[in-house]
Amino acid sequence: MGRAEDDEPPPKRVKVSSRKVGDLSKSTLLTDPVSCSLNDLMARPLVCQGDDEVVGAKGVVKKVEFVRIIAEALYSLGYNKAGARLEEESGIPLQSAVVKLFMQQILDGKWDESVATLHKIGLMGEKIVKLASFEILEQKFFELLDGKNVMDALKTLRTELGPLCINNDRVRELSLCILAPSQQVLAGMSGQDVVRPKSRTKLLEELQKLLPPTVIIREQRLVHLVEQALDLQLDACRFHNSLVGEMSLLTDHQCGRDQIPSRTLQILQDHSDEVWFLQFSHDGKYLASSAADCLVIIWEVKLDDLFCVKHRFSGHQKPVSYISWSPDDHQLLTCGVEEVVRRWDVESGECIHIYEKNGLGLISCGWAPDGNRILCGVTDKSISMWDLEGKELECRKGHRTIRISDLGITSDGKHVVSVCKDNMILLFGWESKAEKVILEDQTITSFVLSTDNKYLLVSLWNQEIHLWDIEGTAKLISKYNGHKRSRFVVRSCFGGLNQAFIASGSEDSQVYIWHISSGELVETLAGHSGTVNCVSWNPADPHMLASASDDHTIRIWGLNQVKMKHNDTVSNGVHYCNGGT
Whole-model pTM? Predict the structure, then answer.
């Protein structure tokens, strides 16, 4: 967009912009502000055209506010003449005269006058006035100190800043600048950084954030509102699953159903029994699967999005019910049903270590974020922590887990999530010992923690999936239903772009996908011939989803418009893999 050059000062505008703020007299002169009486300039709500007048079909947009925001946008874009013309023609000033005077006084360094003018501005509480006065007087203090006027700076500190009783700690920090001027404290921070006073433009920007928007409109407010509207459109779009290149302001955003993976791209058939669990690596380059055949398979995702077998891990004596990738994806933990946990090297395929407890079985496993420790749920309802060499570092007893092979560990390592009773999830701090409980009214069959640690997805016996916000006090925020579950453990997952979707297996042989915000069921994927036990969405590719089934297969789902590359046996556009590359 072009930028208007404006040599003549508009008659009615004080321009303040982070890109072009300096001497207000060059772009927005006041009309002889010195001759105005401050009592006459007392700021009031702008009533030039009536506060109650609205625009728009819904009757919620106040005309005065709307015009002021447009004027601010014009000035921010450099269209000073257009902004001034809008103010003149509408009769609605962007800022009141007293606010313009105040802003000019800040830029001119007239600190005492600006504090006096600040008290004349209405629509502000006493606390805001004091906070703003503190900012102004602190700038005065620093400029005096920078000009070697130490005694005047000391007077400002003692007689003006101190009596405000706003920030005593900050006053003590400023006093250190008097004692050691060469070790000035950075504005707003503690430390020994040597700095000069911040610019007056920067001070004005900070004051704009502090003062109410009814007094000074936030810079680029219109742009912010437009960006907010675009974000809301994206959030409301039930099929949005692609990175946005360009969004037009001329039309509303809307994606089609073709953004959701719904076509079988490949069928993996190397397991000889029911496939119980699968999970993509964090980088999306590998898929690990486990089954009732006691086998774990590592699949590599090739550049053409076709999968081939990288390793087959054997050694478990019982079906493998749980898998956990290390934080760097170089190692893999696998857990047999009430058996042992094995740690594998993904590159070589070697079993590096076996973790076990005498007379007890392990039921779940997970990694500490540093990758140097692992945690396991034990059949005696405890949770144990080991180092990589198998030394047990700690064991938390007291009904910490039940025989459900799910274990969540937050990415900062501070909290562990487990099912401690049939209908209860426990979030406890491993170091802090703090505990938080989520209580459901149905038996819990599985759960999964979101990658940002903010949400917990809980699958229940009654064929519902609950989404919990676990930041602060745990809150149930959404429920999802439609899938079938009556006998088996059926797992769900977060997925898609920004984890905007939820997918779940089902006993009716289908995969169900919901939009996380609206709760709307957006897709059901048919193809399996047995219960779908587990699903996993590729974290690096929002268009790739994997599902594991009792029919002994894994299906890879992708977009409908993908043109298939067929290197082996192909039937109806589906690639079948039996261990070949």
Answer: 0.70
